[in-house]
Input
Amino acid sequence: MEKITLVTELEDAGKRLDAYLSEYLEGYSRTYAQKLITQGLVLVDGEAQKQSFRLNGEEELCIFLPEAEALQIEAEDIPLEIVYEDESLLVVNKPKGMVVHPAPGHKSGTLVNAVMFHAGGRLSGINGVLRPGIVHRIDRDTTGLLLVCKNDKAHESIAAQLKEHSITRRYTALAEGHFAEAQGTVDAPIGRDKKNRLRMAVDRTGGKRAVTHYEVLEEFKKYSLIHCRLETGRTHQIRVHMASIGHPLAGDLLYGGHSLGTESGQYLHAGLLGFIHPESGQYMEFEAPLPAYFAERLQKLEK
Output
């Protein structure tokens, strides 16, 4: 059983315990969070509490996660926006709120469930039963392009390109504040946050190298629209790097961003993806427009 210890922030005061857990346990549903609380696997300052317990901020939470169950992935007829497809791979435009692969407490409704149905189970198996075809991922509330491999040869080729940092990955993000320079690079290693195991953080002693290049596209009163190009691909890399230089992404509550209203989650879109095709050896590049909620937000900011 895995134990996770974290400390809530003052800004979390007033939140229900189950809502807080489902928000910060990315990839897990609120139902799963409630199940953990009911089973006494969540302690607040050493004591079990109800699902409806309201946080005061600065409490220490201890979360005990049971060992992952062996999951039988079910193919589900979930609509997918297929940008490109051939015998080797798929390029999918993932919507906001969709988890990439199943996890305990979130066994259905994922991109993998949808791709299993679409591809009839013909996916690479290198990453095991939980992640068939998945060679890289984007966060639940990040939208945009994701590459899915149909066979192991394609998977190995794309994985090698990721390792060599030769894949083109450009994101569009809405960041808080104005940047001092129109473009720049954040070169700072990333590792698990030592105070909050649900987050990542800049870790200059034990982290893995992470490099993000950014360019300011447009400035609004309190926000900046930017492009971010990944040289490496660490978990939450753009979110961590932008927060580390004082520009958390809009809506990214986990890393210090502020809510913009009804839309939850960070304003981050994987808009451009380029790679060498595993079979043809030709460079291919795809783009996906901003999702409606993001484009509408920019229109409001412009007004």
